[in-house]
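pipeline stage [seq->struct] | target=carnosine N-methyltransferase | organism=Mya arenaria | residues=328
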Amino acid sequence: MDAPMVKVKVEEINDEIDVESQEREHFTRILNSFRSYRTFCQRRVTDTLRYYEGLPTHHKQLIPNFLQHLTHVQWCICENYDVLKLIIQDVEHIFENKQNAANAGEDEPTSKATLPKISDMDKLKSTLRQFVRDWSTDGQAERDVCYTPVIEEIIITSLAVTLHKCKEINNYTLYPWVHQWTNNLRNEDQVRAITFPDVDTSDLPENASFSMAAGNFLEVYEDPVFFIDTAHNIIAYVEKIFEILKPGGYWVNMGPLLYHYADMPNEVSIELAYEDVRSVIEKMGFVFEMEKKNIASTYTENPASMLTHTYNSVMFVCRKPVMKEEGQ
C-alpha cells in the first residue's frame, strides 16, 4: 500500500539532485568564464592583428601607432585577468547558502560540459563595467541618477556593502573599456584605467549586516534597482515582493524594462509594457505613493564613447497596506 508514496518521494529526491547538479554545472561554467577571460579576449586581439598584417604597406604607414596600441590592449587584458583571478581565489564560500567545489587552481576549463558560452563572456565583460558604476569615482554620475533617489526614499539610517579583499581606497585597477573596439574617439579611451573601491569598504557601522546568496530572486531576494526586468515572468517577481514585504512596508524601484530574456535563444519570457506592470502592481495590492517617469539614466555607460544609450526610466514608491486582523 505504501509503494506509490515511496516512489513519489524517490522522484522528488531525484529532482532535487538534478537541480543541484544543474546549479553546480552552471556555477562552474561561470567560474570558467573568469578563467577563460584572458584567452577569449586575446583571441580578439589576434584576429585584429592578423587583419592588420594583411593590409597594404602604405596603409600601415598611415597608422604607425596601431601596433603599439594593440600591445597596450593585450597588457590591459592581462591586468584585468589578474583581478579576476583574485575574485575567484576563495570562491568556494562566496555565497552563504551555497558551497561549491571551485577548482580555483585551474587556469583554464577542462570539461566541455562547463565551457563558458559567448553570453557568459559578455556578462563577464559587463561585470567589469559594473565595477565602474558601483565602486569608482568614474561611476559617480550614474550612481547619483539611479541610486540617490532610491536611497532618499528608503527609511534606513545606513546601508554598507563590503568587499572583503579591499583593504584600502582605490587599491585595485581595471581596464573596463578594453573590449570596446568601436566608437573610440582616441586610442587612450579604450585602455583607460579605473581604480576601485572609491570608499573604504571596511569602515562599517557596528550594526551593519551584509551577505550574498546565490539563486533565482524568487528563491533569494535582492534589491530592485534596474532589477525587475531580469524576470522570465515579471508578475511572479511582483507577487514575491508583495509576499515578503511586511505590512506597511515600502517597495522603491527605479529602472527601465529591458527584459533580459527577450529575444534570447532558447529562452522564453513575458514582456509587459509599463502600464501593464503598473496595473499588476496595483491589483496585487500595492498602493502607489510616488511615481516619476522619463528619468534619463544610463547603465555601465562609457562616458568617453562616441555612442551612448540613455534609458527613460520610471521610479516609483509603493506601499503594502496594513491589513486589519479579524475581529478588529
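stage status: PASS
auto-comment: Residues 3-35 form the longest helix (33 residues). The chain has ten helices and five strands.
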